[in-house]
Amino acid sequence: MEFLAPADLGDAVAAKAAHPDAVPIMGGTDVMVELNFDRRRPELLLDLGRVPELREWDRDGDRIRLGAAVSYSRVIAELSGVLPGLAMASRTVGSPQIRNRGSIGGNLGAASPAGDAHPALLAAAAEVELTSVRGVRRVPIDDFFLGVKRHAGAPDELITAVWIGAATGPQQFSKVGTRNAMVIAVCSFGLALHPGSAQVRTGIGSAAPTPRRAAAAETFVNAALQDGNLWHSRDVLAESLLTEFARRVTAAAAPIDDVRGTADYRRRALGVLARRCLQWAWTDYRSGSVG
Ligand SMILES: Cc1cc2nc3c(=O)[nH]c(=O)nc-3n(C[C@H](O)[C@H](O)[C@H](O)COP(=O)(O)OP(=O)(O)OC[C@H]3O[C@@H](n4cnc5c(N)ncnc54)[C@H](O)[C@@H]3O)c2cc1C
After folding, report:
1. What pLDDT, on a 0 to 100 scale, did the predictor assign at position 290?
2. Contacts made by residues 38-46, CB under 8 angstroms, sequence distance 24+
3. Which domains does the chain have, with CATH numbers?
4. What is the rounded CA–CA span in Å between residue 51 and residue 47?
């Protein structure tokens, strides 16, 4: 196995153009598992660990540009005020060691239906920045996940960053697993309130072939909040609204039975998570807090 270790982004994208089959490696917390278990035996590894551009995050107006290699630990330590949903999701990932090595870009690269960053990124309307020698493009997160472990990046492209709006309202993330740490989600749910545009956005994890939004649930809750003048009045949400929202989130899932849980259990748990996340976020909104 050959190992390429470019020192900057220009060299990294040039290497990917010259070797489209090269497997990128950042924190290695997914790649090394695959190599150790002999699930993958690539001829070429492209180590991005020395590319400084991928490790930075920056603020451009109301949007954060999060370099692909930024770790979960740094999101928690440095960005929980502006990206509260992603920080909540990051706190549930693996163990301290995994959170130190594992990156948001690596989670996107793996494109697992169970990736914990994904529901938060869907709810926040993130965009994934892809770079190649042909140029830079941004793919809305809604269009990024194409199938189980498949994403919209081309063979010559690298994930270089994620663009996420700084939160303008409360965000929530919740995950069901067999224990509290070091566990792949049985199912998960992310939710963000966007008071400026009077929108609620959602993200479902580990309950469909790809992470996905619950579109009909969003349409329902957005109309109910608008019709009831609730963004303005900040009144308590009716039980019937929470129940119908949860029902529609459940209906948006397409879970399977597997070793982690049954499809029925996932549906049931997802409804509970959806209801709680909306309730928690709305309680924060009523008290005027973001996060
Ligand atoms: C013990 C353990 C516990 C874990 N717990 C969780 C958990 O709770 N939640 C969770 O979501 N995940 C978990 N994971 C999985 C993993 O830690 C995450 O997916 C992490 O975000 C991967 O980031 P990384 O930088 O280590 O990626 P890597 O392993 O380096 O790469 C992951 C994938 O992305 C590709 N890739 C890497 N960089 C790029 C790039 N710049 N452009 C294009 N493709 C790229 C790689 O080729 C590979 O396919 C766990 C893993 C382990 C070993």
Report:
1. 60
2. 41/1, 42/1, 43/1, 43/2, 44/1, 44/2, 44/3, 44/4, 44/19, 45/1, 45/2, 45/3, 45/4, 46/4, 46/6, 46/12, 46/15, 46/16, 46/19, 46/22
3. 2-46+54-165 (3.30.465.10), 171-287 (3.30.390.50)
4. 9
Residue 225 Cα to chain centre, angstroms:
25
The residue whose C-alpha atom lies closest to atom 34 belonging to ligand 1 is: 109
Question: How far apart (Å, rounded) are the C-alpha atoms in residues 261 and 166?
Answer: 34
Per DSSP, the three-state class of 200 is strand
Ligand 1 pocket check: which of 26, 121, 183 to mutate, most ligand atoms within 8 Å of Cβ?
A: 26
pLDDT digits (tens, 9 = 90+) for 29-48: 999 999 999 999 999 999 99
DSSP track, 3-27: EE--SSHHHHHHHHHH-TTPEEESS
